[in-house]
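INFO  loader      accepted 1 record
INFO  loader      residues=405
INFO  predictor   begin
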Amino acid sequence: MKSMVPVVIVFLSAFLGLAVTDAAAQQNAAKPEPLEIRVGYMRAYAPGLALSVLDVPPRDEGVAGAEVAIADNNTTGAFLGQEFTLDVTEVEPGSDVTGAFREMMAKGVRYILADLSAEQLLSIADLAGQEGVIIFNVGAHDDVLREEECRANVFHTAPTRTMLADGLAQYLIWKQWRRWVLLYGSHEPDRLFADALRRAADRFGGQIVAEKLFEDRGTARRSDTGVVQIQRQMPVFTQDLPEHDVMLVADESEVFGTYLPYRTWVPRPVAGTAGLVASAWHPASEQWGGTQIQNRFVDAIGRRMLSKDMSAWTAARVIGEAVTRTQSGDPAKVAEFVRSDDFQVAAFRGQRLTFRKWNQQLRQPVFLGDGRSVVSTSPQEGFLHQVSELDTLGIDEPETSCDLN
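INFO  predictor   done
INFO  writer      dumping tokens
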């Protein structure tokens, strides 16, 4: 009898091994392939210039935010059978991007985060619509993309110039600093932001008592603008202005604005694109769970989170949230859900954010800060709205010229 024991043990081991292998095979056969969501990031990139080397944009600005969000999506997706990937394509500023867009579609990309100029984005918007591709604008602040040239397949997580200007104006009015002078650059983005500031003054009761154009004459930014020369030029440029509370500057092109604080003829605060700046996010924000996302971003990327990073992070999280809730990767179903009353996304900004139905712009607060800290956030106390106080920032529904139909 004893000699039979090893035989029995071998038989049972073989039987159990076959049973385990068969059960694992059945489990693997029953497990479906994960739903793959391919997200593209198209960016117009060239090495940036800035008056201060501290303001030169990091090489991965925007892309880094999308990468962190994709990782966040996959944390949830691992439990739901969803897998998110990111495909990054760079193009030259001002170049034709239709070829790069078609290459992305050929790879199966059906969601695109666009960090492009308004002209480049419009060149692919209709083509994307025909192919069932959804675009999230994470970089362009042009109001025209949400108004006269709005598209039903384009959502916007970057704030508009009017939203930024309104957020700044509300704070100045709250402070009772109502008399403003406006200094603006000679490039088109400068003029567009100057227009947004004029609109904000009319809307909230600010008074622009004087305006002055700073003409870009194309001189070398560093060799022709030494400390001594700047210290003499800026006071002279601001000498003949009437009495005012605040100096507003519209210099998106980074030609002169950074040189204004502490160099004006009379001691006045500077706001706009220099001094007190309005933005979608601030790297020093710690409120509303901001410390959590900041720390995760620093751990993953090695630097602080900037506005474009937050716009890209939010766009990728919008996709992730909608795919999770609809259990579908179909762009049409995702877009329908994002437009619905059931959609909202948490984005570390004090409240859950939604899209405006009339132009598909993300409602969001505006951060006001200098280079070191957050000074305030708008909407400011006392600026009320019948639907959402966030709709006091930017183009409201009765003002819109967008026709999504």
